[in-house]
Amino acid sequence: MAVHNLTADAETFTCNVFLVTGEETTLVDAGAMPGIVDAIGEHVENLDRVVLTHQHGDHVEQLDAVVEAFDPDVYAYGEHAHRTHELSDGDTVEVGDETCEAIYTPGHADDHVSFVGESTIYSGDVVVHDDGAFEDGSFGRTDMAGQSREELIESIERILDRLPEGVESMYAGHGGEFHGDVRRVIERALERAERREPKYPEE
């Protein structure tokens, strides 16, 4: 199994889009970068599924193009015209060669889910390694309409409660990927979120 960040060099604002190859070739989010279909095609000919962490524009803008090009199954918690499989908390889905549990993690978005396997977490925007606000443990913003810091804190706690001991790789919606003590990174993110301070105080 290999994980490719297809938007690492994007010149437009987008989330990280991860192509996970293996038994079930999977795209984690579709992003907002024009040309994502070509980027997928540089690695694989077929795409089995797309799993959505949530449906903010920077995560789904290119979903129409991806579905048109590859006709994959689409797994999502919230309703979407392209959704073929509805996710609920505790459901499992194959991502590459790994079985991942969908953990409902609202706060940044009310339809947010994170995908947690035995060695890997795809955390979307609920918790990230680095994002310009904090290094080595940060969390999704909660200062916009429909967002909730309290729900986000509960979501991070839920991840920690259900995180297997062997998780050593974190692929988040923004910032860099992380390999190492993932639990400690998430604990630092929780500590910072619990301060209830603005994430971006200048805004």
TrEMBL record:
<dbReference type="GO" id="GO:0046872">
    <property type="term" value="F:metal ion binding"/>
</dbReference>
<dbReference type="InterPro" id="IPR051453">
    <property type="entry name" value="MBL_Glyoxalase_II"/>
</dbReference>
<dbReference type="Pfam" id="PF00753">
    <property type="entry name" value="Lactamase_B"/>
</dbReference>
<keyword id="KW-0862">Zinc</keyword>
<keyword id="KW-0378">Hydrolase</keyword>
<dbReference type="InterPro" id="IPR001279">
    <property type="entry name" value="Metallo-B-lactamas"/>
</dbReference>
<keyword id="KW-0479">Metal-binding</keyword>
<dbReference type="GO" id="GO:0016787">
    <property type="term" value="F:hydrolase activity"/>
</dbReference>
<feature type="domain" description="Metallo-beta-lactamase">
    <location>
        <begin position="14"/>
        <end position="174"/>
    </location>
</feature>
<protein>
    <submittedName>
        <fullName>Flavoprotein</fullName>
    </submittedName>
</protein>
<dbReference type="InterPro" id="IPR036866">
    <property type="entry name" value="RibonucZ/Hydroxyglut_hydro"/>
</dbReference>
